[in-house]
Amino acid sequence: MMDAFKEFFDIVGVFFVLYMIGYASFLFLAVTVGTSELYKLKRRNQLKNELLGEYYVPVTIVVPAYNEEVTIEANIRSLLALDYKLYEIVVVDDGSSDDTSKVVRDAFHMQQISRPIQRKIPCQAEEVIYESYEWKVPITLIRKKNGGKADALNMGINAAKYPYFICMDADSVLQYDSLEKIVRPVLEDSSVVAVGGVVRPCNGTEIHDGHVVSYRMPDQIVPCMQVLEYDRSFLAARILFDRFNGSIIISGAFGLFHKNTVVEAGGYDPGTIGEDMELVVKLHVYCRENGIPYRIRYATDAVCWTQAPEKLGDLCKQRRRWHIGLFQSMMRHRRIFLNPKYGLVGLISYLYFLVYELLSPYIEVFGILTIVLAFAVDLINVPFMILFFGIYVVYSAILSLTAFFARIYTVDLKLSFSDVLKAIGLCVVEVSCLRLVLAWVRATALIGYRRRKHAWGRIERKKIRFK
Amino acid sequence: MKVEFMIYIYGAVCASMIVFNIIYNLLLKGSESRMQNRCQKMRSKINAQISRLAAGKNVEEAHLQELRRKLSHINHLMAFHQVLQEDMEKKPDLYREYRHQMRPVVIYMAAVYRDKENMQAGYFAYFLSCYTADKQMAMDSLQDILLDYVQKSNLYCRFNALQALYHFGTPETIAKALRIADDGSVFLHEKLITEGLLSYTGDYHALIEELWKNIMRYSPHTQLAILNYIRFRSGEYQREMYEIMMDKKADKELCLAAIRYCGKYPYEPAYGPLLAFVEDKDDTKWEFATVAASSLASYEGAAVIDALKEALHSSNWYVRYAAAQSLEHLHVNYGDVVDITAGSDRYAREMLMYRLESRKLQSLEV
């Protein structure tokens, strides 16, 4: 019996060593490439190697909203403050049970209008449409039957008048220059069909007319740790994937898409709650299968500020949704896995997301259970285990801090000394505690997920400090 | 043992990344003050020369020599640029003269930066686009060197060099630069070309003439950008555009651009063909019908109204939308289109009603 245990633990040990080496190598490569890319970009901008001038690609901003009466007005005001000329705002109220539509109608003096909308992508019927031409750019409000976020986005695409659209969340605000920055890749390369922006938690940040007037780490621990986590994932992994056109996720909080390509690919899938990732994978598949030259880019300087959940419960809910979305997207497009037809997307991106995102919570929980079992049968070297865990924590914390500081320095944000200390302290907590909690949440996310298929994610909203 | 070795390697590299971050941050903080120092020194040197100019003397040769040496370094060039930008408005005439006397230095620098890496070359081209912002600064030899910058296979370098040429280049050089940039090695969005040409401050008639003379030497992509530029700038190319519109072999996008031109600048001979485009029921030609329907907003007559009303029944959404929009532009009343608003075609009715309501809404709010 003991021999069997030993053999089992040996196999598990080898597996985990390979798993950790793979992850460490990836993370290291990603952070190195991401950091150097950011510094390069800063230098490039200093030397005016950018498309300076007023080059406006017409863009429709689609804001899907469901029970967003608290944040929707600030969101639209932030959109009106954007430093860009040629755009329109389309708010889609997905059958909210609160006063979302009323808030928009009253705040922006909207008038009801009978507007026909072409159903290029199927979606639930509109109930009533309002428009306003009183502001810097036209605003449209469409109230429709509830159908989920993907369905609301499809309605927004159908109503969009311009060739590019931006999808964003109603609880987010765009930085004043974010539109100009996110369209640049389109001006640089005609084959660009989608561009992802950077999403940053705005908790603790004060934004005035789209400009950050004061930046500090959030007071609460949970959003503070998310700041570190967002930087690590956005500035590291996505920049690396961008290098080989392998990005398979553009955050639903801020992304630009070529409308016709999205329509031809079938739009957002209302059957998944990870509609943002599903669409990007679908675009890869569509373009590759039809021999369309394409690029999916990532704009590291196009910034969207979003509210990170402040309560652990809300964070868990959010991550559960994300994990289900990841599962659905990956299952739906499983044929691209290791399929040479899909190039590095199927080989590297899909493999990474499968092993280190989708399966990682199960692997991590399995690892912990194995440790417990080994401890129970007295087959564990406790000092070595502690040393190994310590190395893991220090290693991950250093990479998180590298990404965090790289971001801070390259975008000219000023950080107080106490915030630096907070970041250093909390990155250790994040990798050693929060990660394990979230691993458990994600590991159990798929239990009963079918019941929540079309539901909007709900977290407690606070008014955004946008002036 | 191997695993431990890898862990140590990773740990060492990560630690060095943190050290790099810290050093970079310190350098960054120091770089601002270093730049300020550089600017201060540069300012005092320039001010001395400005004082000489104010006293009716020339810029010292020693100063020009020093500039040749110093401005070959990008950081000094940036400081020099910053000082000029900040101080130029104070004494514009003296600074103009200063820049005039500095021309040999600029030409020398152009040759120096031409051989530097693309990013630095791009900055120099940007500097030129700001520095030589008036036609007096135009120098033939500088324009020739800038053509070498346009040749570089780097988007930003090309873009900045073109921007510089739009500021002080001759029509011949700009036309030549666009031909070089049209080599296909670097994608230059047609919007960048059109907007760039629009920023040209010289005689745009001469520029258009030069571009038109060479139009067949450009790719359809650049031709489209030029056609759009002409549409924004001049109404004197109606006949030429009409010919493109009628040319069955012409590129589709060029043809559509020509139809748009005929919409912006009504041209009698185009009237019939535009009606024909709108009346064409061929589904594959919906783009022509849509753009022609938009263009007809600039034409009058019962035939136009009839054609647009008929287009409201098109199976294509965009054709219906464009037709409704044009009818709205032509200020049709509800009475004029009662056959549509009370008709049985729901799609036509909805589209027209929307545009009429929309017009009402805009007139209330604007």
Automatic annotation (TrEMBL), chain A:
Alphabetized SUPFAM superfamilies for the sequence: Nucleotide-diphospho-sugar transferases
Pfam families listed in its UniProt record: Glyco_trans_2_3, Glycos_transf_2
CDD domains: CESA_like (cd06423)
A GO molecular-function descriptor: glycosyltransferase activity
Signal peptide segment: none
Domain of life of the source: Bacteria
Domain Glycosyltransferase 2-like, chain residue ranges per copy: 60-110, 164-376
Transmembrane segments: 12-34, 336-353, 359-377, 384-408, 420-443
Entry keyword set: Glycosyltransferase, Membrane, Transferase, Transmembrane, Transmembrane helix
Family: Belongs to the glycosyltransferase 2 family.
Protein name as catalogued: Glycosyltransferase, catalytic subunit of cellulose synthase and poly-beta-1,6-N-acetylglucosamine synthase
Source organism per UniProt: Anaerotignum lactatifermentans DSM 14214
Automatic annotation (TrEMBL), chain B:
Ranges that cross the membrane: 6-28
UniProt entry keywords in alphabetical sequence: Membrane, Transmembrane, Transmembrane helix
Pfam families assigned: HEAT_2 (PF13646)
SUPFAM superfamilies, per the entry: ARM repeat (SSF48371)
Name assigned to this protein: HEAT repeat-containing protein
